[in-house]
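Morning!

This is the sequence you dropped in the shared folder:
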Amino acid sequence: MKVAVLSFYQGRVTRGVETFVHELSSKLKNQLDLTVYQAGSMPPAPKAVKPNLLTLFYVDQHSLAIKAFSRRMLIRLALSPPDILMPLNNGWMSLLAKRFCQRYPTKLVLPGFAGISWEDRLNLFLNPDAFVACTKHQADWARTINPRAKIVTINIGVNTDRFKSEGKNMLTV
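The structure's back. Tokens below.
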């Protein structure tokens, strides 16, 4: 089974989504043909900005960079479409991936890493082949947004082998 993951920030930052992709790819590398597509070396990710009309409609500079990246990757994937496509950065990436999956025999999996938000509401409106909720609460919420959507819950937590109480404490009180 051929799986393509689109992760704009992979290799640039190590937040939850990027850590998830790293763990997923290392665990499944011998079971699937999994390829992670990332933007590569670029300037640091922009700091979180207060939502405004530009961000709401995905026409801010940051969203347009994700759109350009998504288009390039999907053009490349059209040469040999994957069985499963999992875009991780919402907005344009989800919209373009849905369009791609309508043209090719590819299943769309949209994870709910944004949480209960506008981004995941849009993801649910796109009727993916599967929406991955990170908690039972999020899955219950998702069913109220799109009762017809196939919703799978995968609890994403902390790897306790990497984070132990006897480790170095980075917080100071």
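Headline: The chain has a mean pLDDT of 84.

More detail when I'm at my desk.
O.
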